[in-house]
DNA sequence: TATTGTTATACTCTATAACTATA
DNA sequence: TATAGTTATAGAGTATAACAATA
């Protein structure tokens, strides 16, 4: 990339009145740093997303995971392929619908999540969000929640 | 795409405690709608960004525009190509450094911005951000500004 | 020697469409 | 007839590296 190494995205300063630009810059800021941190474990932001979804919701079909992350089912195939090869998830046929898989977190997957990935992302997260007061963090989460929750 | 047509990105509900996910979902929400709105004028979010940067800062080199939008100079070539072909910007050689172009907004470009694009994006923006109270909007902008402005 | 714009190229990401097996 | 997963493929977007003109 060009100018987005570690400096803040400068669009913000130019267009501080536009929430859209700010949102994009902020999201890029956080995502870039998380991607950087996850690179050590050879995982992408999206892979981590799959693991987190499975941890939170239990076994799901590929399509359902994709729906929750806004990823197409054909794209999910590759993502699950990689995670399965690394032993972080397993595919087994859904008992009640044998067209679908039941994707499940393995013990190594769960361990990686708890012992490595969560601390790692929490650290990055803290570094970026750490600039904000606790009050502002709560504000931000509440406001963003309203934004994405609406119609 | 799969599940991100018009429904809110569902990651948020699952991981409401993680600002990173929320930021991504919110940014995607806004960007998708803006892209949709700009489609009528056959422009992308990023093209609009170039026009806005030029409007705010005056003539700039391709590389400088790219730096401000976090886009590589090789990518800028194509973007400016299209905008120039549509008569929205002009390339002229920089007087003091004849390696560089001076990219300038044309009158049609400025007019399109003022009469069409700004109202359009303001409308979309209002539709998404409109869910928030005026107070929350101010909060959000201030907090995001802190996030992207920091080290 | 360094830098702007350019080109060619390659890589990543993703979706579309057609297929299979199940429902 | 519809759906989950798969596959092949194609398109968009982007960066890397080498080159010409200029500094």
TrEMBL record, chains A, B:
Signal peptide: none annotated. InterPro entries: HTH_MarR-typ (IPR000835), MarR/SlyA-like (IPR039422), WH-like_DNA-bd_sf (IPR036388), WH_DNA-bd_sf (IPR036390). SMART domains: HTH_MARR (SM00347). Residues 16-149 form the HTH marR-type domain. Pfam families: MarR_2. Coiled coil: none annotated. This is MarR family winged helix-turn-helix transcriptional regulator.
